Description:
Blueprint: H1 3-12, H2 20-41, H3 51-74, H4 81-103, E1 119-122, E2 126-130, E3 133-136, H5 137-150
Antiparallel strand pairs: 1-2, 2-3
Helix pairs in contact: 2-3, 2-5, 3-4, 3-5, 4-5
Amino acid sequence: MSVEEIEKMMRDNPLLSFSIYTSGQANYLIALGIDLIKEMRSWKNEVIYDFNNTYYRYWLWVLGAYEIIRTMDENNECFVETMQVPIKELKIYLAKIRIPFAKQEIRGKKQRVYGELSVTGIDQDMFFEIEGQRYSATDAITRFKCMIERIQVTDIIKNYN
């Protein structure tokens, strides 16, 4: 590979400077998220084909997205200061969704979930109510995608691996 090809690869995939694993995982989750949004947008009021497949793929997406952002936040010294706060904010946001999905309990309590894992609305999207706040699957996916795509090579000052 030439120097120019390597530089282009790094510009196209800046997270490679942080971790080859994180970069690959993030790219996969972005593609999965895009597929999930397309599936949800195709839903019509009268018929939703394969709802369970979309719901459980979103469950896996939540777990993966949180773990990627958590890894980035726990190693925030690898990022410039201007990226550290947005990464932490996204981790907090995703944690509110992840805890009921992963642990099947309410965040900060050893109390089982009941309706938190239930879809509370469908309008070409899935909506969940967690701790009195409404969450959109499309919004979570978009926030993650925007965060990853916002990162530039110059935002990563240290390699994680």
